[in-house]
Amino acid sequence: MSKALTETNYHFPGQKSVYHGKVRDVYNINDEKLVMVATDRISAFDVVLPEGIPYKGQMLNQIAAKFLDATTDICPNWKLATPDPMVTVGVLCKGFPIEMIVRGYLCGSAWRAYKSGVREICGVRLPEGMRENEKFPHPIITPTTKAEMGLHDEDISKEEILEKGLATPEEYEKLEQYTLALFERGTEIAASRGLILVDTKYEFGKHNGEIYLMDEIHTPDSSRYFYAEGYQERFENGEPQKQLSKEFVREWLMENGFQGKEGQKVPEMTPEIVASISDRYIELFEHLTGETFVKGDTDNLAARIEKNVTEYLK
């Protein structure tokens, strides 16, 4: 069985601090650069699951790097290099404390709210008479706050963002402009792969007074995709859409009685389950990028990453 990288504890040259997120470990180098290690941890329902998924970090990192490179004409982004298949090094930005969520279709939490009678999300009015998985007349932006670890992100409107001073009117206008342009590009790329980009999130920050796109983009962890083939038929018949996202992990957990609620136990992740999740992620990678996934050497992941990053930083 291939090994998975579930924790890191590096001391890179010039390292100031480290932040361990749910999936990524982020190292601050001299308050100038960030070394972002995409680990093989997997989270669902805001819980990090007990087993790592081999190659997941490599796949996420490589998908994000590919899409960052494919959007540099739209807006500047933080990426400088990928010195290791699981690592992106980029410029340190001061992040906006909001996530820009953009939706092209009514599904997920937005559909659950709509079904219960809600007709306005984050200050955006929704048309009457819509059905699950229906395409919006135009993509809508439904931002959330960026919560501290362990807390849930909260919906927030443009008006509240400006009122709280989380961005200036000029900055917010630029964030909206970038968000819609990136979503349009992601939609075009997805369509060329027989996919529909349903919804996604972007994070932005400032570097030298300029707005930069940060973090990952258009990965199955940050985005939802439908298969284009059969979408219309399923929609008309009121059937669930065939998805390309980590939704299958959530479904497996729910089938086994886990939704992240108090007192619930994560079901046993046998080697077979772990291998099947890894295989599904490889399928996601290949479908999304149109490239064959080349597995990195997993014999000594931690040492490989340390060597590659240290050499790059020198």
Task: Please supply descriptive tags for the structure shown above.
single chain, 314 residues, alpha+beta, 8-stranded antiparallel β-sheet, 17 strands, 32% helix, 26% strand, globular
Question: Overview of this structure, please?
Answer:
This protein is an alpha+beta fold. It is 32% helix and 26% strand. The strands form four sheets. Strands 8, 9, 12, 13, 14, 15, 16 and 17 form an eight-stranded antiparallel sheet that branches. Strands 1-2-3-7-6 form a five-stranded antiparallel sheet. It is globular, with a radius of gyration of 20 Å. The model has no long low-confidence stretch (mean pLDDT 94).
**What is the count of β-strands?**
17
How would a textbook summarize the main sheet? 8 strands, antiparallel
> Could you say which overall geometry the principal axes of the C-alpha atoms support?
globular
- The rounded distance between the terminal residues' Cα atoms is 34 Å
Strand content: 25-35%
Number of helical segments? 8
Unreliable sequence segments? none
Q: Secondary-structure element order, as H and E?
A: EEEEEHEEEEHEEEEHHEEEHEHHH
Radius of gyration: 20 Å
| Mean pLDDT, all residues | 94
Percentage of residues in helical conformation: 25-40%
Q: Which structural class matches the secondary elements?
A: alpha+beta
